[in-house]
Amino acid sequence: MFNCTVPCSQLEEFTSVLEAAHKVTVLSGAGISAESGIPTFRGAGGLWRNFDATELATPYAFAANPSLVWEFYHYRRCIVAAAPPNAGHYALEALQRKCEHQGKLFTLLTQNIDGLHAKAGSSNVVELHGSMWRTRCCHCNNIQGAPEPMAKEANIPSMQLPRCKLCNGLLRPHVVWFGECLEVETMECAHNALEDCDLLLVIGTSAVVQPAAGFAPLVKAHGGAVAEFNTEDTPISDNCRFKFHGPAAVMLPTALGI
């Protein structure tokens, strides 16, 4: 159980900073999606069919066994398709509308590949790690939607795996796997969102993986405020002026007054 009570002094100070901010940026991670029932595949319970799920999210795993990796992502998409956004997602969508109405600059950066922010109504979401709902051709790099494999069991024949509509090359999930770099355009969007940021909300992520690990220190170093929403302290907590401990679905509506 979490003690989700927020001291009035902290809530008032946070509200004051939010109201005064001209540029607001959000960084969300797996924690907010976990509250919608989506597995994080980290730590305890991080196995899928006795495979370490994080070991499947690599270009090396896909090269060795594309059938297995596609089956894993089919399983993940089935879970996400049935998962509704939670109150935390909707609070961020409401914050975006409020900021835009007030003429503030607002950017939502997410490490999640599930699309739940867009499902909740958020627009122009910067998906740092890509999307499980898009694919990319391994041959011509064309990006398209994510069709289902013709077969859904293990050891799917290669030609029954999703293929490119342009060149018939093998498609892969359009996500950033371990060992891969973020796309240049995505990094530019993130940099622009963090530059001169007045308030950064870090939600449901420990932000230990680069480049996200540097976001909070960067904002703090340039005089911006950082607010962390998490169920526990994280490696970036020391950079945070505000700490809201508890589920995002509870703490975000409370802190944002939504």
Short description:
The chain is an alpha/beta fold. It is built from ten helices and eleven strands. The strands form three sheets. The protein has a six-stranded parallel beta sheet with strand order 5-4-1-9-10-11, sandwiched between helices. The protein has a three-stranded antiparallel beta sheet with strand order 7-6-8, with helices on one face.
Spatially, the strands of the biggest sheet line up as: 5-4-1-9-10-11
Question: What number is the mean pLDDT?
Answer: 90
Tell me the total number of β-strands: 11
Proportion in helices: 25-40%
Strand content: 15-25%
Enzyme class: transferase
Protein name: NAD-dependent protein deacylase
Domain Deacetylase sirtuin-type: 4-258
InterPro entries: DHS-like_NAD/FAD-binding_dom, NAD-dep_sirtuin_deacylases, Sirtuin, Sirtuin_cat_small_dom_sf, Sirtuin_class_III, Ssirtuin_cat_dom
Description:
This protein is elongated. Helix 9 links the parallel strand 9 and strand 10. It is of the alpha/beta class. Helix 6 runs parallel beside helix 10 (248-256). The longest helix has 16 residues, at 66-81. It is 35% helix and 19% strand. It has a six-stranded parallel beta sheet, sandwiched between helices. The protein has a three-stranded antiparallel beta sheet with strand order 7-6-8, covered by helices on one side. A two-stranded antiparallel sheet has the order 2-3.
